[in-house]
From TrEMBL:
Gene3D superfamilies: 2.20.28.60, Citrate Synthase, domain 1 (1.10.580.10), Cytochrome P450-Terp, domain 2 (1.10.230.10). One of its GO terms (molecular function) is citrate synthase activity. This is Citrate synthase. It catalyses: oxaloacetate + acetyl-CoA + H2O = citrate + CoA + H(+). It comes from Kushneria indalinina DSM 14324. CDD domains: EcCS_like. PROSITE patterns: CITRATE_SYNTHASE. Keywords: Transferase, Tricarboxylic acid cycle. InterPro entries: Citrate_synth-like_lrg_a-sub (IPR016142), Citrate_synth-like_sm_a-sub (IPR016143), Citrate_synthase (IPR002020), Citrate_synthase_AS (IPR019810), Citrate_synthase_bac-typ (IPR024176), Citrate_synthase_sf (IPR036969), Citrate_synthase_typ-I (IPR010953). Pathway: Carbohydrate metabolism; tricarboxylic acid cycle; isocitrate from oxaloacetate: step 1/2. The lineage of its organism: Bacteria, Pseudomonadati, Pseudomonadota, Gammaproteobacteria, Oceanospirillales.
């Protein structure tokens, strides 16, 4: 229901156009521009800077104040008190589960971790040196060819089964991407282990020796999964929603999300941060300053990766938690003197005191420190974005489910056309 109305005066129209204004539970009000088309106008918002594409109850971000809430709960509280499995339930179903609901959900997720044995054949079609994100896009999409039994997306039960399958199978596929890349046999999931423990087990165990899970590593991994689990209508989630709006099956939609996540401006930034830290190389003051100066130079393509955000004009709250986690993990693993961590911290400090970054409100984002943690856990750089995709699967599928539950029209943006007007085909003799 419209609480208020906006009036838009347009040269050439007899009367102002009335546009309803709606209020959410918090955050900016929105002007409903759907009626503009009746007057012959589109809105123009490349990059969707000021456009609310949907209604949602899942995640709220207050970018000016650095606040992130999932179903109302602050990310800092969730990161401290929850775990990835509980958070997945919360994102998907709206509430923190009681003990019984948690156990039921946990059991369902752990009973769906295995993938169909023929999926191994898909891996074999890829070059071993392919980027694991390329492989993940393919094999995640291929899941739709294996799980036809619960693909009636109009049925809530089928949507839940698909959601659980995706949350459960993504770590398995991700670890398989790694094992295939390094030429080791795939490790089957172990359902007695927690989500993060099982992922580390599938990544690092081999048939020749006992693998002991380091609890520090498992806790850090779970926290990384939690901090990346959802982030409102970001590029990859919007991609999943757009694909889903056509009625496409959820496995195909998630595969589209993985593709969108891969870019260095989005989920690919965690890998790009470590490449950047390696490029910076030495921790001398002049050298770090030199790279900060390059990031400010419009003629230079170099940018501070892991810095800046479309929505946050303040600290990304996830970055604070990530930095604390980074300090704890490296200390506990005896890597407190890590040279790349030192470079990252000094880089952050210099940038935060520099007018260029202050004026543009550019702060470290979730991925400025995540790569340093992942590297300390022994995870290679090319797997960082894959891990982001595993974590974000929960958010993607929760948004997809919300959209289908609420009913949606196909997503179909329009354009400001700047090409030729009609012309005749040339008379070629
Ligand atoms: C994620 O949307 C989400 O929620 C994403 C995410 C999630 O959880 O889903 O949070 C995850 O994608 C994090 C972002 C990871 N990307 C990076 O770390 C890459 C580096 N950052 C950027 O390229 C950039 O800041 C973006 C892509 C994150 C945001 O892009 P915007 O909103 O389009 O901002 P912009 O590029 O228009 O920048 C505004 C100004 C520009 O300067 P002016 O032209 O105004 O002079 O700030 C400058 C930019 O050049 N700028 C930077 C910079 N980021 C922006 N300058 C130097 N280094 C940077 N990193």
């Amino acid at each position: 229901m419209a609480d208020r109305k906006a009036q838009l005066t347009i040269d050439g129209l007899d009367a102002p156009v009335e546009l309803p204004i709606y209020s959410g539970t918090t955050g900016p009000d929105v002007i409903d521009v759907r009626g503009l088309i009746d007057h012959g106008y589109f809105t123009y918002d490349p990059g969707f800077v000021s456009t609310a594409s949907c209604e949602s109850e899942i995640t709220y971000i207050d970018g000016a104040n650095g606040v992130l809430l999932h179903r109302g709960f602050p990310i800092e509280q969730l990161a401290t008190h929850s775990n990835h499995t509980e958070m997945s339930y919360l994102l998907l179903n709206g509430e923190i589960p009681d003990k019984e609901a948690y156990e039921t959900f946990r059991n369902s997720v752990s009973r769906h971790t295995m993938v169909h044995e023929q999926i191994v054949n898909f891996f074999k079609g890829f070059r071993r040196d392919a980027h694991p994100m390329a492989v993940l896009c393919g094999v995640a999409g291929a899941l739709s060819a294996f799980y036809h039994d619960n693909l009636d997306i109009t049925q809530e039960h089928d949507r839940q089964v698909s959601a659980i399958r995706l949350i459960a199978k993504m770590p398995t596929l991700a670890a398989m991407c790694y094992k295939y890349n390094i030429g080791q046999p795939f490790a089957y999931p172990r359902n007695d282990l927690d989500y993060a423990e099982n992922f580390l087990y599938m990544m690092f165990s081999n048939p020749c020796e006992e693998y002991e899970i380091n609890p520090v590593a498992a806790k850090a991994m779970d926290r990384i999964f939690m901090l990346h689990a959802d982030h409102e209508q970001n590029a990859s989630t919007s991609t999943v929603r757009l694909a889903g709006s056509t009625g496409a099956n959820p496995f195909a939609c998630i595969s589209a999300g993985i593709a969108a996540l891969w870019g260095p401006a989005h989920g690919g930034a965690n890998e790009a941060v470590l490449n950047m830290l390696a490029e910076i190389g030495d921790e001398s003051e002049e050298n770090i300053q030199h790279f900060v100066d390059r990031a400010k130079d419009k003629q230079d393509a170099f940018r501070l990766m892991g810095f800046g955000h479309r929505v946050y004009r303040n600290f990304d709250p996830r970055a604070r938690v990530m930095k604390e986690t980074c300090d704890e993990v490296l200390e506990e693993l005896g890597m407190g003197d890590d040279p790349q961590l030192k470079i990252a911290k000094r880089l952050e400090q210099i940038a935060l005191e520099d007018d260029y970054f202050i004026e543009r409100k550019l702060y470290p984002n979730v991925d400025f420190y995540s790569g340093i943690i992942l590297r300390a856990l022994g995870i290679p750089k090319n797997m960082f974005t894959v891990i982001f995709a595993v974590a974000r699967t929960t958010g993607w599928i929760s948004h997809w489910n919300e959209m289908i539950t609420n009913g949606t029209r196909i997503g179909r943006p329009r354009q400001l056309y700047k090409g030729y007007t009609q012309r005749d085909y040339p008379d070629q003799q």
